[in-house]
Structure prediction request, 507 residues.
Amino acid sequence: MSVEYWSEGVRSGVFFVFCIFIISMVLENKNAKGNLKKYIIFGIITFVASVLSKFAFEEIKNLIITYEAARGGSETWFGNILMSLANFIQLMVPGVAVLTAAFFIYKERWEEKVFVTLLVVLIEMIVLHVFCEITGRLFSPGITEKVYDYPPESARVLIEIFWMGISTVILRVFIKNILLETLDKIKEELGKFLKLPVASYIVFLLVISVIKLLGLNFRSVNSSNVFVTGVVIVGLVALYIFMYIALFDAVRISAESAKVQADLVIASDIQHSALPSVFPAFPDRHEFDVYADMRPAREVGGDFYDFFLIDKDHLALVIADVSGKGVPAALFMMAGKTTIRNQAIMGEKPGQVLANSNEQLLEGNEKGLFITAFFGILDLNTGEMEFSNAGHNAPYICRDDKTVEMLKMRHGFVLGAMEGIQYRTESTVLRPGEKILLYTDGVTEAVNTGLELYGEGRLETELRQIQGRGIQDIVASVSSSIDAFALGAMQADDITMLVVEYKGAAT
Prediction:
């Protein structure tokens, strides 16, 4: 064999060494230690395979020339296809060797090895066929048949080492700042993104194969030839750059979205754990029964409810709606719920409880959120309920005479929006067997596909129809009525209800 075959093996060996070195920077270095024997084995395999592929290519080329000469000396489609295929296989040999070595040397998941290896091999192939070719033209010893000759083989090897060294330094920054972060974000779903590096690598080799067949290269003395070569390769590389930038941006956005989603799930769990959800809530008390339910429009809702005994004779009831949605609203909801409860257990009247809560919620409310709230205290001996309202929907009372009435009250200002607000304490009386429904505006402002509101009228009608049912059935029936009305329209707001039945003083 001539020196040309052996130099092909040497240059492929240089390609192999630099690719493996770059891959080692991406994949865990500790897995690469102690693999010198494998490096040498695969380096030798790469060398031999490159020499044999070069030899095979020359043989195929001679056969095609002989075949076309027998047909009159003109080029044929069949010959062009075979020549392109032979070029493609020869170009692919070093990359296949690098990919095979990566599978044996490193211990990461196969998807990660394929993605990293093909990306590195593609970049180094671009370096070989653009920068090394142009530099080879600059150091060409002469011109033969309108093409700049290649420099001596030793010079070609040095040129290849120089540009691959430069690319390694540049890739070090790219790997440190972008690639490692991207791989970490999509590690579990990397298989979905493998199509891009696989397709990019194969298409680039096909394009180079066809370019060689057409005689296009950077060493031509014909400026048009060089221009077309540059447009094709640079255009393809630019396309790859935009594609990978889009991929990394999509991964970043997807990772940020996943993180936000995870935060929402955590916030949702915290929120639900903070709301009373075990019923019956007071199985040992026979003076009353209570049931509540919240159906958030998103993972995290802004509504909240609460009920608790201030002492053995007084039951506190709270239902509220925080402005906004998402995590900020959930955090403000937690603050509001805790504040109202802490103020209530101090024994103040409902109006004073809301006034004190308003002042506390103003502190640190940088996002300007506010809360509408209804707070009541039910005397379990007499059925009298004192209450105060901070801009919230008026409750409904299901009377023992089968009538339904909206509780008449003064609507105070919302909590957390303005200091110095005073709230009025009012009262009503529940007779044994009567129920009171507290709810948020997600009930009356539910919409259907025609953008029609559910409204207070439908709620009153539904409550009249289900008079006499248990408190849990009341909540379930109103929820079903809203769903039937919505006709599949997306839920726009949280739907929260709390029902209390007063059964009379304990005997």
Notes: Residues 58 and 86 are 9 Å apart (CA to CA). The first helix runs from residue 3 to 26.
